[in-house]
Design a protein that fits this description.
22% strand, 89 residues
């Protein structure tokens, strides 16, 4: 049994409001919850999600941290060897 007068008020039918519309009810310590995004309008759940890699972010990350294809790794290994030869001369 919970102690009296220490727990917040529980609202079993709290309204979740998005864009002025009640989208669902749930239990909460607040009578109304205002949200900007919910599963009914989020692109991931509605199927309108687009994955855009217009700047080649993945490729740039792979090159930056040396995780590219074997060709780029071989090029990276050759480059220091040339610099060492110049340093010896």
């Amino acid at each position: 049994m919970p102690k009296p007068d220490i727990h917040p008020t529980w609202y079993p039918d709290a309204k979740v409001i998005c864009n002025g519309e009640v989208v669902m009810t749930t239990g909460s310590t607040q009578p109304e919850i205002h949200v900007d995004v919910w599963s009914g309008n989020h692109p991931f759940f509605t199927g309108t999600q687009k994955i855009l890699d217009t700047e080649g972010r993945v490729d740039r990350f792979m090159r930056k941290y040396g995780m590219g294809s074997t060709a780029s790794v071989n090029e990276d290994k050759k480059a220091p060897a040339k610099d060492e030869k110049k340093a010896e001369a």
